[in-house]
TrEMBL record:
The gene is LOC106079580. PANTHER family: TUBULIN POLYGLUTAMYLASE COMPLEX SUBUNIT 2 (PTHR31854). InterPro entries: Knr4/Smi1-like_sf (IPR037883), TPGS2 (IPR039231). Residues 264-315 are annotated as: Disordered. This is Tubulin polyglutamylase complex subunit 2-like isoform X2. Residues 276-294, 305-315 have a biased composition (Polar residues). It comes from Biomphalaria glabrata (Bloodfluke planorb).
Length: 315
């Protein structure tokens, strides 16, 4: 994700939301200036970690942004869309749990699980390093999770041994969603995949819940049916999660086409209508003009009158 494409996507999504969707108003896009490279290096030295290359490029081209949009309903404005990514200074480490909890003093360590239903290892509140990317307006947290590539056992770790040090390259990163019940849900393997998904979902309310077993609430389904029906169909089929999972395994990802992202059900009928207009001359030659029911009735009266008239004269 280079600087040109990144800024181009943000500009295009603002224009499309303003002009292509009915009823949308008050579109505000607060793009922060790029972060200084020393600030990124200080973050990595402070946490003894290396930022993923795609996330590092994001901070060096745009140090966070916040896009919101509203909908006009009965002379009132209702806030609907919200896209937000924190800056490098707001990428803070969540408080780690202790592993000495008991039934009298429980801790987050008691909530750690082995694997999810797909066999993927869940993040640990004790051993994983978890950083908050988006607070999701209070209904959850989108987190950047660091996990060890080859985790060591408890017997192998010696806190007094200076040689027992984990290098930054010994960690892998993934994007997870933490709901309010402190359950983990996998979203995608890379930050770039999450960034693309956020743009595709237009920042609609609770869109991250489409990747969980919780599902979208009824109000969010209504907004999806109105502004992103095609994206809703893909989310319900589960194709987005499969494509985002395989995107991080070395498969080439197709470029983001904003014309298809903002395409609704009504827009899909336009190409067919255009083709019919183009071939209207051929259709008119083949088909006979269809008269209305009223004209057909009037024509029937004239026919019966002309037929009955000779009989009257013969009498």
């Amino acid at each position: 994700m280079d600087e040109i494409n990144h800024k181009n996507y943000l500009d295009q999504i603002t224009i499309y939301i303003k002009k292509k969707k009915p009823g949308i108003c008050q579109v505000k896009n607060d793009i922060k200036p790029p972060a200084e490279r020393p600030a990124v290096l200080m973050w990595e030295q402070k946490h003894c970690l290396l930022l993923p290359e795609d996330l590092k490029n994001f901070f060096l081209t745009c140090n966070g942004f916040h896009l919101t949009w509203c909908v006009t309903m009965e002379n009132n404005t209702v806030p609907v869309g919200n896209m937000e990514l924190c800056s490098i200074s707001q990428l803070v480490l969540l408080d780690a749990a202790v592993d000495d909890g008991s039934h009298l003093t429980p801790s987050l360590w008691d909530l750690d699980g082995d694997k999810d239903k797909n066999g993927r290892k869940l993040p640990s509140f004790v051993t994983s390093k978890i950083f908050q990317l988006d607070q999701c307006q209070g209904y959850g947290k989108v987190c950047l999770v660091y996990d060890e590539v080859t985790p060591k056992g408890d017997d192998d770790v010696d806190p007094d041994n200076e040689n027992d040090f984990k290098f930054p390259s010994d960690y892998t990163t993934e994007i997870w969603f933490l709901d309010r019940s402190l359950r983990w849900h996998f979203i995608c393997p890379t930050f770039q995949a999450y960034y693309r998904l956020m743009l595709m979902h237009l920042g609609l309310p609770h869109w991250q819940l489409a990747f969980t077993d919780i599902g979208l609430p009824p109000t969010s389904l209504q907004w999806f049916n109105l502004y992103a029906p095609v994206r809703l169909e893909i989310d319900l089929m589960g194709d987005v999660t499969k494509s985002s999972h395989t995107a991080g395994k070395g498969m080439a990802s197709s470029p983001l086409d904003l014309n298809k992202v903002f395409k609704g059900k009504s827009d899909r009928k336009k190409p067919g209508a255009a083709q019919n207009m183009a071939s209207g001359t051929n259709v008119s030659k083949k088909r006979q003009p269809i008269s209305s029911a009223r004209s057909a009735a009037v024509a029937g009266k004239h026919v019966t009158a002309s037929v009955s008239q000779p009989n009257v004269k013969s009498k």
